[in-house]
Amino acid sequence: MSACLNTEADKASPYPHDKCPYIETTLRRKICVVTSNRSDWSKLKLVAINLRKLFTSQDKGSDIQVDIICLGSHLLHELGATKNIVKEDFPNAYELHTLVAGDSVESMTDSVGFGIVKLTSLLCALKPNIVLVHGDRFDAFCAAIAANMLNLTIAHIEGGELSGTVDGTLRHAITKLSHLHFTCTPEAARRIRGMGENPASIFVTGCPSYDSLFAVSATCWEDEKMDEFFNGTPFKVKPNKFILVIMHPVTNDFEESNTLYNSLLSCLFSRKSPTVMFYPNVDPGNKSMIQTLHKHQKADPASTSWLRLVTHMPHAKFTALMRHASAMVGNSSAGIRESCVFGIPTLNLGSRQEGRRVPSNVTTLVKPSIRSIDCWFENELGKRYAQSTMYGFPDSAKRIAHHLSRIDTSAGQLKQFWEPRYALLPPLQPRQYVSRAQAILADSTSSPIGRCKILGLITARGGSKGIPGKNIIDLNGKPLIQYTIEAALSSKQLDRVILSTDSDEIAEVAQNCGCEVPFRRPSELAADDSSHLACIVHALNILRETECFVPDFVVILQPTSPFRKSIDIDTCINIMLTSSCDMVLSVCESSLNLSKNFYFAADGTLSPFAESTAEIDYTPRQKLLKTYAENGAVYVLRTQSLLCPPDNAPNVGSFRSADTKGYEMPVERSLDIDNPFDLHVARLLMAKPF
């Protein structure tokens, strides 16, 4: 596939910060959506409906045909024959029986082979341009193998995530078989890049189910007629007065499945709180879990007075159910990814979701006892947490449909392994973009400066040891970081000012000061020994993936330089823009010449840092060559030098460059707060300026 840009198409894009880097095409296309269960259909359905809207939209002029293939547990009557839910919106959906009877890994493996055979025949008949699959199920794996061998373009939703079972392995395998990747988080996109996938094929669109989650109203219980749905229940399921349970097998550890399920059931049957429980899915081990459930039911015939079992439920009703649960328990991904939108206290049991990012409403017990589960209920039942949008956006499904409708699939499906250099993304092709810096400096058509984008990047981690909470500590009535934000926002040349931090507290302070905080830095990039370069690269990757924003220059600003002014920032940028250097560094005159500095040798001997001579030792300070020290206030970097450093570049792993120019700042604006003494001096200077 071509990775070129169509500028006019980009200008017309409804997602200006999420532009598709493929050529727009108006050719007729067929998109085949493969779904295997109620859960994945809740996400694929929204994408399919948006594709159909594009087909019927008069102003788009698109010519898109959407075919739906139902397979797997959709066709099982014991799980509600959820194919009928699919056919409510797509009555012509195809049906494929692909599951081999059995409750073992052998039968699951047989189902994979059988599924490939059946899907190959149908895909050959349909001849789609794109096959859309979701997640990590073995059914999606079948579709990916068949489509890949048939040289069809494969689009994969929710790749790059982590989970603790064999599904996690299948997810990554599907990623490598796929050509287009629609991820939910920047972290997932980073993992896919690490697998050698071209960054131009990766889109951070969010989870498509979030479209419906954000649309849920406070009256959804009444709107979805939930009282009528539960009409046959011996007890009345009341909103916000029941526990929602979804527990599935752990496919690589049947013993864990039964142990976890038995512990949870023992606790529930002891509490006898109103509970709505879904049957386990069709993964190997489900029959054993159902047998365990039946044993508890047999031992307590009166359980129907508080327990309602459900095989399936339309997604709109399930969303209303989750919205009004007082707690959610189990090991379903919905507990991690979707419950956080409603702030429901959620207990995640076992290793099935191991590796996923966990929002604040989720508690994980890997090896829970009955007592620990019961204690969690006592502490959490009925609480509500702040909403989290960790896994999506309100228009995720529309974004995915938008890209699928525009990507050119005519250039063939041969994939190349993308070899990352310094793990940094390649820049987009140049756009017609005029920055504030260019507008100010390029006042004539003959200006050599050219068009550029300049990013101000403030780096502030939360784990300071020398001064706890240093970056937001009070300095003359303001948080320390506020001085840097104000200087950056006053700059005439920075196009954007963003913060890279791992700390929610620092992020909140920065946002209140007017700084953008579009992401959180992962903890591994916020340790004492973390590389500053890795932090910069992470920020550039995130902006490239989520907004297609690639600056020409990056200005690094550390919060520990409160006396730095906007003129210092702009002067450094001017030096960069009017030269060909790779870096501009702010410095101040050193109070001591290098020859006057010493260090302690291993044996305690005091040795001169530079070679000592009689001429230097007895030369007046005023006549010695001036030396300058890095003051940490401003670093201006050329993005391209980070992307493609020369083979002989020094300091690999550092953003330092051999081609560096300097800007001398007055010593009174060069204080870098690194320890309590520096902070004391800063407070004195604030009280009585020098």
Quick gist of this model?
The chain has 690 residues and is of the alpha/beta class.
What does this protein structure show overall?
By secondary structure, this protein is an alpha/beta fold. It has a seven-stranded parallel β-sheet with strand order 3-2-1-4-5-6-7, sandwiched between helices. The protein has a six-stranded parallel β-sheet with strand order 10-9-8-11-12-13, with helices on one face. Helix 2 runs parallel beside helix 3, helix 2 (38-56) packs across helix 17 and helix 11 packs parallel to helix 12 (286-299). It is elongated. The protein starts with 6 loop residues before the first helix and ends with a helix.
Give the strand tally.
23
Beta-strand content bin: 15-25%
Let me know the largest β-sheet: 7 strands, parallel
Roughly how many Å apart are the termini?
62 Å
The strand line-up of the biggest sheet is 3-2-1-4-5-6-7
The number of helical runs is 25
Average pLDDT level: 83
In quaternary terms, these chains amount to: single chain
Keywords:
disordered N terminus, elongated, 23 strands, single chain, 690 residues, alpha/beta, 25 helices, 15% strand
Please give the structural blueprint.
Layout: H1 7-11, E1 29-35, H2 38-56, E2 64-70, H3 83-89, E3 94-95, H4 105-126, E4 130-134, H5 138-149, E5 153-157, H6 166-177, E6 180-183, H7 186-194, E7 202-204, H8 210-214, H9 220-223, H10 226-229, E8 243-246, H11 254-271, E9 275-278, H12 286-299, E10 307-310, H13 315-323, E11 327-330, H14 333-337, H15 339-342, E12 346-349, E13 362-365, H16 370-380, H17 396-406, H18 436-441, E14 454-459, E15 474-475, E16 478-479, H19 480-490, E17 496-500, H20 504-512, H21 532-547, E18 553-557, H22 566-577, E19 583-589, E20 598-600, E21 606-608, H23 614-617, E22 628-638, H24 639-643, E23 660-664, H25 676-687
Parallel strand pairs: 1-2, 1-4, 2-3, 4-5, 5-6, 6-7, 8-9, 8-11, 9-10, 11-12, 12-13, 14-17, 14-18, 19-23
Antiparallel strand pairs: 15-16, 18-22, 19-22, 20-21
